[in-house]
Design a protein that fits this description.
about 500 residues, alpha/beta, six-stranded mixed β-sheet, two-stranded antiparallel sheet
């Protein structure tokens, strides 16, 4: 029922359908009809539609917003033409890098599409293992924030703060877990609608299987199990990845990060709308911005899909590394990351006005200082991390048994330089190395507890030029990287460096 008028939801469908389809091109309208026909056939006929459930995974960015609107148009089209339609499940995943602005965008989109009070819609928010009905004001669970903070720090210290390993590796495994939980929750769904092309799906599946095989997974068995097989392969990759990150004896960390693989008895079908629509945001700007109320927030919109603020932190980390590790300037580091960001934006065919908007936020000294302050504030609020902890992360002073500890102390904490032996003793523990003062200082400066710091101490800084670790193998297959023009910190000569980001 409509909570405002008392009307059944379907009585509002004609007006809503007319509004929504008024923003679609003839090609898109044909795509809506073709998708409807495909869903009727997949369901087993029109009469089966009321028991049929279709899911869209909604990141909260501009591209997934379009997919939600398109599938809603299909749902309304079937209801108006056949008197029956499917249930639409829209599931959004959150993590600490998702600012409130993303949830506010989602709320506006749901309201514009008439989804919030439609009994043919299931709107779910998934915070790791916690599945709840969507509410714009849902607090993010502290347990999830703690997991995300530790993952960022542990990945970042192994990767010297390089963008994709620091923020995306653990997050991508969490996305796989999200799909498993969203697709099989409460009886599961029949279809998952995606905006990825069939080619993209096949390439991604092949990359997963190669990575899984290198991790010791029986990929032949996985290939016979469809979507669930992909999730099983990702579970195997995740197990190897997190063992490398936390150690073989870290049972609790491994258990809480295990990828959900759903129910063997159900196998959702994947249907792509990629060939039926355009994903260039300027082709449907009026739909997304004017009708759906989407806003390009200054935190949530950073160089790519506008669904989290972590890309802004990636730029911040590059700049901190250049300033503190290489001894150059923060602005030089920003310029190097912006070179990567512009290349990625062009590859994603972002319209020039959005590219200009993103880069324009860094085009004066005052704006760059403001972005630094904004990044620091977001890191504190989202992850509980100070700039001091971020600087420690890009220095990676604890890995390789503290090989860079002396340089870190000299550059960033000269008052502690004389305590290097005490710090090594604590990190190399655990027996006979109790030193409450040093332990407290280490926690404050790094944001990590002693157990995780000792794990880093016995781990190596990842060599991305060698395939010896799964972290390096993941980045090797990641297209979001670029050789930027930089300066060799040892010689001062011009050089190039491969960095990653989003």
């Amino acid at each position: 029922m409509n909570q405002h008028t008392g009307e059944p939801a379907n009585e509002r469908y004609p007006a809503l359908h007319a509004q929504l389809t008024g923003f679609l091109s003839d090609v898109e309208l044909d795509g809506v009809k073709a998708t409807g026909e495909r869903l009727v056939e997949a369901a087993g006929g029109v009469d089966a539609l009321p028991d049929y459930k279709v899911m869209v995974a909604y990141g909260g960015g501009k591209d997934s917003t379009y997919v939600v609107a398109f599938v809603r148009a299909v749902q309304l089209h079937l209801a108006l033409n056949f008197g029956r339609t499917f249930t639409l499940r829209v599931a959004n995943m959150r993590h600490a890098g998702v600012p409130r602005a993303v949830m506010e965008n989602i709320d506006r989109v749901y309201r514009a599409l008439g989804l919030l009070d439609d009994d043919r819609a299931e709107l779910l928010t998934i915070d790791h293992t916690l599945v709840r009905p969507f509410d714009v004001d849902l607090p993010l669970p502290q347990h999830l924030i703690d997991i995300n903070r530790v993952d960022v720090l542990m990945n970042g210290h192994r990767a010297a703060g390089d963008g994709r390993p620091t923020f995306c590796n653990s997050c991508n495994l969490a996305v796989a877990d999200f799909y498993g939980r969203a697709a099989w929750f409460d009886g599961g769904v029949d279809v998952v609608m995606t905006g990825d092309s069939r080619r993209e799906q096949l390439l991604y599946s092949a990359w997963i299987m190669r990575l899984a095989k290198a991790s010791g997974v029986d990929v032949q068995e996985c290939r016979t199990m469809g979507f669930r097989g992909i999730l099983l392969a990702l579970r195997g990759i995740g197990d190897t990845y997190f063992r490398e990150l936390f150690g073989d004896d870290s049972a609790s960390e491994l258990a809480e990060r295990e990828v959900s693989t759903g129910d063997r008895s159900m196998q959702p079908q994947f249907i792509s709308v990629y060939d039926l629509v355009s994903y260039r945001v300027h082709d449907h700007w009026d739909l997304i911005v004017d009708f759906l109320g989407f806003q390009f927030d200054e935190l949530a919109f950073s160089f790519s899909e506008s669904d989290c603020a972590n890309p802004g932190l990636m730029a911040h980390l590059r700049a901190l590394r250049v300033e503190f590790v290489q001894g150059r300037t923060y602005d030089e580091g920003l310029a190097e990351y912006l070179e990567l960001a512009e290349e990625l934006m062009h590859k994603k065919e972002m319209p020039q006005n959005l590219i200009d908007l993103a880069l324009g936020r860094y085009d004066t000294a005052e704006k760059r200082l403001y972005r630094r302050e904004l990044s620091d504030e977001f890191a504190r609020e989202a992850f509980g991390l100070s700039e001091e902890a971020l600087v420690a992360m890009v220095f990676s002073p604890f890995t390789d048994r503290g090989a860079r500890l002396a340089a870190f102390l000299e550059r960033c904490h000269p008052d502690r330089a004389a305590d290097a032996d005490r710090i090594h003793a604590v990190l190399g523990g655990p027996d006979g190395a109790a030193d409450d003062e040093i332990e407290s200082w280490l926690r404050d400066v790094s944001g990590l507890g002693l157990t995780h710091l000792r794990t880093l101490y016995t781990s190596s800084l990842v060599d991305f030029g060698a395939p010896g670790t799964i972290i390096s193998r993941v980045r090797a297959g990641d297209p979001h990287k670029y050789h930027v023009a930089t300066i060799d910190p040892a010689s001062g000569a011009p050089a190039t460096e491969l960095i990653s980001g989003r």
